[in-house]
Fold this protein.
Amino acid sequence: MRISGQPAWVLHVRPWRETSVLVELFTPDHGRIGALSRAVRGPRRQWMRAVLQPFTPLRIDFQQRGELANLGAVEPTAAPLALTGDSVLAGFYVNELLLRLTPRDDPPRALFARYCTLLDALAGGVTLAWTLRCFERDLLDQLGYALAFAHDADGAAVDPDARYRIDPELGAVRALPSDRSAISGAQWLALAGDQEPDADTLRALRRVLRRLIERLLDGRPLRSWDLLGELNRK
């Protein structure tokens, strides 16, 4: 199957044999695809290596053959996004999330659009902590792990003054006062909104979402968690 003119972002690239690279790409119509770009490591194809990098919007042609596609023409559609400092780390973190949690060849068009919006936000200098929490929330939703905010596991309305632990299958479960992993109902409800909450709530939501993501990773932590450093504590 030949595909032409597909928008794409590079999630990851690594050497493949002597002259080729294996590229993980994220597309709107085909989801995440693995593609071989052949003979790009020689001096004549240096321009291709420069283009096949994260955070550069691309238009690609490829031919799908089994698990890996053969990458054809690649054209940047705009200049690389100007991500710097913590924004770069946040971008690589999100890329690793997509690599680890999304299946290949499953086209989550809404998630592709959400990823584009996120990258634009990172390039625009937004508050990183809230931006990442919202993306994690939306990613879990797109993967079929929709987070219930209005009601708890017993069907009762979430009480802003109560304490809850968040179970990936049951949702918000009333917690004992001694449960240090619990968060307040008000903090949990804040994640459903669009307004950035206070710093304490952001830290609580980061802990909860990280535990949910860890469950999906089956005990295999993300490498980028070790690189985020202070950003992970905001």
The mean pLDDT is 90.
